[in-house]
Amino acid sequence: MESKRKKTVISFLGYVLAIIWLFPFYLMISNSLKTKKEIFNNTLGLPKDLTFDNYPQAFADLDFTKTLLNSLIITVISVILIVALSSLAAYALQRVKSKFSNVVFMMFVAAMLIPFQAVMIPLVTIFGKIDQLNMAGLIFMYVGFGSSMSIFLYHGAMKAIPRALDEAAIIDGASRFEIFRYVIFPMLKPTTVTVALLNTMWIWNDYLLPSLVINKEGTQTIPLKMFFFFGEYTKQWHLALAGLVIAIIPVIIFYFIMQKQIIAGVADGAVK
Amino acid sequence: MTNKKSWLYVFSAPVLIALFCVVILPLLFGVYYSFTDWDGVTVNGFVGFQNYLNVFKDPGFRQALWFTTKFSVVSIILINVIGLGLALLVTQKFKGTSLLRTIFFMPNLIGGLILGFIWQFVFIKAFASFGNLVGIESLQTWLSTTQTGFWALVIVMCWQMSGYIMVIYISYLQSVDVSLLEAASLDGANDWQQFWKIKFPMIMPGFTVSLFMTLSNCFKLYDQNLSLTGGGPYNSTQMVAMNIFNTAFSQNKMGYAQAKAVIFFIIVAVISLTQVYMTKKKEVEV
């Protein structure tokens, strides 16, 4: 009896907290469906006369098809490169024991301590000088910044894969790359999921680096476009909120498809 | 022998080149620039430690550093307490725990910039109408005073990161041996005792990870700062990352900004290393 009452209290507390957590989303969505005037008079309640007029205009002003495409291109290419190149490097660094591999691995680990601001100004200057402040330059930078943590995770996972596998394949006449491609990489799949998801979450939402590298009409990603859009519409909440909802929809869809992997990946990435 | 190892160099070259161009080279250049009067285009001369001395006398930087420190301390404590609380909550047995996990974690998927904008609406419009409703005047101007702006940042950060920290604590709580808890329960240990005597020592390693993550996220915060308060009113809620950015790109004092960036790097590195070292030591004692 006692434990049943306790259960009710705990579950009630959980639901109340969940409602509090969702409240900002509720405010954003419900107000995006109101007229400008109704947001002013009735901020907290549900919309009285539902309007969808804010959405087409926000969608057009965000140039959303193009903006979404830019975000997708940059994120997908960067993540593929990070996964491929980091796993390849981690394989070599973990399998060969030498001074070189130790020093290089320590360098990648140490680089995780460096805050972006410490390298931000010279980075932009150097890439500006060689005329690489563009999408390709940005993707290259993401490989540089993303590889540290990815190599660290792959390096840890690699330890669990027995060397006997490599040796057997060598006897069969496989090259090092073939061993990596057909034996090792498939076995690293759980780590690959973690690495891909952590990097996707970071790159998709990143604002500061792209704002310094590709902040031009036509190449803007969702956070960049959102910043300009919001600046223009500070006094026009009905459009600003519709824009925010549009900007969030791709992430929410992704989350509901991948939520199990995302939560497991975050735990894995943090704990190791 | 060299031939045998050559694949090591080939396989690690691509990421090594990227790391070198993006992190190592800019860091070295940065340290060099911080000793000059660099304006982004040319270096006119060495100024020795003058930039560094000026940073310590800069009232704007000192205020930003103090604000960042206060913000980080308050946020780290709250995020870890709330995150652990949520983790204990959703590892109980009742209907809907996996939905609750999904909801609590959701804010992490959305970038700091967009989160800041959503909360700008909450603080400006929703808080104001609620203040009207219940007659609390101070809710009207939540983002326009330093004090409430501080708490606005703390609230947003807690709302976002608690779910992340929850996930980390859950993975440690799940490693707690259930039979141990059952045995304790039979021996008459109540929930409180079970938590402190059994679960707490087991999740101790989780603190290292969680503190490290919250600390580095809070101390380096930029996006939420930019989109929520923009540093205002009068730069009083400006944090270190934003101070460095503005010195470099609004005032064009590149060499000076770089000296700030180097100091920032040293602070972040020292705190992180000390913290990892101290928590590791404590784990052994437990």
Automatic annotation (TrEMBL), chain A:
Q: Which PROSITE patterns match?
A: ABC_TM1
Q: How does it sit in the membrane?
A: Multi-pass membrane protein
Which UniProt keywords are present, listed alphabetically? Cell membrane, Membrane, Transmembrane, Transmembrane helix, Transport
Write down any Gene Ontology CC term. plasma membrane
Xref: Gene3D superfamilies? MetI-like
Where found in the cell? Answer: Cell membrane
InterPro entries the UniProt entry points to:
MetI-like, MetI-like_sf
GO BP terms:
transmembrane transport
Keyword check for Cell membrane: yes
Q: Where are the transmembrane segments?
A: 12-29, 72-93, 105-127, 139-158, 179-204, 237-257
Q: Which residues form the ABC transmembrane type-1 domain?
A: 68-258
Family per record? Belongs to the binding-protein-dependent transport system permease family.
Supply the name of the protein: Sugar ABC transporter permease
Automatic annotation (TrEMBL), chain B:
Q: How does it sit in the membrane?
A: Multi-pass membrane protein
Report the subcellular localization.
Cell membrane
GO-annotated biological processes: transmembrane transport
Q: What is its main location?
A: membrane
Q: Which residues form the ABC transmembrane type-1 domain?
A: 65-275
Q: Which domain of life is it from?
A: Bacteria
Q: Which SUPFAM superfamilies match?
A: MetI-like
**Cellular component GO terms, alphabetical:** plasma membrane
Q: Which CDD domains match?
A: TM_PBP2
Q: Which residues cross the membrane?
A: 7-35, 71-91, 103-128, 148-172, 261-278
Q: Which UniProt keywords apply?
A: Cell membrane, Membrane, Transmembrane, Transmembrane helix, Transport
What is any Pfam family matched here? Answer: BPD_transp_1
Family per similarity comment? Belongs to the binding-protein-dependent transport system permease family.
Please state what the protein is called.
Answer: ABC transporter permease
Originating organism = Vagococcus humatus
